[in-house]
Amino acid sequence: MAVVWLILRIVAITNAPVSVGLKTIEGSSKFLGRAFSELVEAGQDFKFRIYKHLNYGPELVKSILDDFKIAHESSQSRGTKTAVLIVKR
Fold this sequence. Notes:
The chain is mostly helical. Helix content is 90%, strand content 0%. It has one domain (2-8, 18-88).
């Protein structure tokens, strides 16, 4: 994969459309990476708030978080599930 990016970068030096396309791809990937990081951070904040506001014990909190995770994962498309697995590696 790194070889492909190297070749594209070399071609982009002399080919304006390839250069624009490459910059668009790079910008989009940075945006998606940042968005995913913010989503993970929001999830951690949600988890903290659940622990803070529910004083019923860790079993109930774990049950709520597990139910949320199952509902969230079941609603994801196949592409999203694949992307999440790749990011977790």
